[in-house]
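Feature request disguised as a bug: please show the residue count (269) next to Ribosomal RNA small subunit methyltransferase A in the output. Example input:
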Amino acid sequence: MNNRMHQGHFARKRFGQNFLNDDNVIENIVAAIQPKKDQALVEIGPGLAALTVPISQLVDQLTVVEIDRDLAARLLNNPFLKHKINVIQEDAMMVDFTILAEQMKQPLRVFGNLPYNISTPLMFHLFQFTHAISDMHFMLQKEVVNRLVAAPNSKAYGRLSVMAQYYCQIIPILEVPPYAFKPAPKVDSAVVKLIPHADIPHKVKDVRMLSRITTEAFNQRRKTIRNSLGNLFNSEQLTALNLDLDARAENLTLQQYCQLADAYSLMSE
Ligand code: SAM
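Example output, currently without the count:
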């Protein structure tokens, strides 16, 4: 049998379709999410409804965002779901989650087994809406979860670590092997919980500066910050911030990136 065929649907590579096919893993994810009846759950990429059906049984209403038109149509025809779900047939990268939270009159609980080809940009998109989100549970490549939680001075520490930790507390939940999916991906996966900080611990004046500085630093992660941040700061300015000019991007803490961002905001005023 073709291993891309699952429940009569041919898995589309371009939409990162690897369907969950393991009851234990599904149960563990639902248990980690702990949905409550009147909460505003939003699933990204429901696919063939492996998580959608068990979650829908625990809540009054469920909103799903699915890019694949055929899958969206199947969800609307699913007898267990059709009276409970609101299907948004759209690219999740285009969804304004603030508007969704306003419509549902409460912060969102977002979850999904994310398409791995766009999981990082999708998380950056979601970070813009953390004020409207109470928590997120995602299945990701294990390597991406490692990057989300990475501390400074490690290979996995990068722009994603800094930006994710700026906005959220991050808790790895569960590791998932390739054979839990159909078709099986080539990599290990893991489920992670992200809880947006109620009060951002190192709040910057302008998050665009933090984004810009982390981009410059990590795009040239092997260079010293004297060089990689040379377009933005001179050596005196870096030294005045108590930074070691010979440090590299991976040696700076979140707090130090936030100090740099605020210093740059002040310089640009
Ligand atoms: N939730 C299902 C499961 O666990 O079996 C499917 C997971 S599959 C890894 C990813 C799902 O995301 C697919 O249904 C795919 O069509 C959908 N998807 C891919 N790109 C998307 C996007 N940009 N916006 C919304 N959904 C997307």
